[in-house]
Structures are given as structure tokens and as C-alpha cells.
Amino acid sequence: xxxxxxxxxxxxxxxxxxxxxxxxxxxxxxxxxxxxxxxxxxxxxxxxxxxxxxxxxxxxxxxxxxxxxxxxxxxxxxxxxxxxxxxxxxxxxxxxxxxxxxxxxxxxxxxxxxxxxxxxxxxxxxxxxxxxxxxxxxxxxxxxxxxxxxxxxxxxxxxxxxxxxxxxxxxxxxxxxxxxxxxxxxxxxxxxxxxxxxxxxxxxx
Length: 205
Known about the structure:
Layout: E1 2-6, E2 11-13, E3 21-26, E4 31-36, E5 40-46, E6 49-54, E7 59-64, E8 69-74, E9 79-84, E10 89-94, E11 98-104, E12 107-112, E13 116-123, E14 128-133, E15 138-143, E16 145-152, E17 156-162, E18 165-170, E19 175-180, E20 185-190, E21 195-200
Parallel strand pairs: 1-4, 2-5, 3-6, 4-7, 5-8, 6-9, 7-10, 8-11, 9-12, 10-13, 11-14, 12-15, 13-16, 14-17, 15-18, 16-19, 17-20, 18-21
């Protein structure tokens, strides 16, 4: 089940107001709020709700199969939520770079109720770049294994202040607040309200 789906190209939205919502619910597998084979762009502010929920595997709030994901900013009222009944839940997930140009003041949440492979923001082959995270901003990943708040193969950059929360919680192995498999991690500053936490029920946090 997909809210918006472009199988051969890109998805582009100017902005999403606080009253706007996109919801995808699948009884078994595969729920995507926004899905494209190419780039996914929200040029302005994302102030509404994007929700994807699957009874089984694979729930993505926003997903790009081969391209990049770009959002101008996420307001305090903005939320992106992905919930999978078993494995593989991602708030923002895709092959290329993932960018939130301005402030991230809302919530990005990914939960795999009884499974693993969970990330708030996940870039398979690219970098993650966020302008800043406000005190109201949070990125949360919860599962039974292999969970990460921010996860990229390239650099992970928060250009300015990180004043919100990034959290990963695993009931089993492997929890990472921020993880890069092949790049650098850079944060402009961490405010007194900012926190990055990782909790694993077994090992590696």
C-alpha cells in the first residue's frame, strides 16, 4: 500500500501544511507513505503527517529506490512515522543522499514491533545532511535488533545545533544513535537539550 507512488520517476511536493496527511496501511507487507524509483522532494516545509504501517515487513514513511530524498524543513507539527509488524521500518529510507536543508523540529519515528532492521533515517549508498535539529525535534528507532537513529554509508552531517533527541533502542543486538559505515560524522554543536542515546538489550550499543 502506497500513499504516493512514482514507479518510473520522481515525486515532488511543494510543501505539506499542518492539516495535510499521507497514510499508507498494509495488512501484510509493504507500506510506503511516499515512494519513488527516483528522487523524492518536499521543497518547502513539511508540517503535516506521513504515516506508513504494515502488519508484516517493510514500512517506509518516505522511500526512494534509486534516488535522493530532500526536504526543505520539518516543522514542530510535522511527523513521519513508519511501523512494521515484524522487520524493516524506516522513517526516511533510500539509496541516495537524504537531506533536510533547514530545521528539523518535528518527529521521525521508526518501529519494528517484533523484528529488526530499523532506522529513523537510512541512506544505503549516500550521505545524510540535516541543517539543525530543534529542541522539539526527535529521531527515534525501536526494534529487537539492528536499530539506528541515523544510518548512512557516507557522511552524516548536522551542520548547526543539535538541540533535540536521537535515540535507538534494540531489544537484542546492535543499537546505534548515529552510524556511518564509510564516512565521517560531523555535528556543529550539541545544545544542553540535545541527546544521542543507544540502548541494546544484549550487546553492541
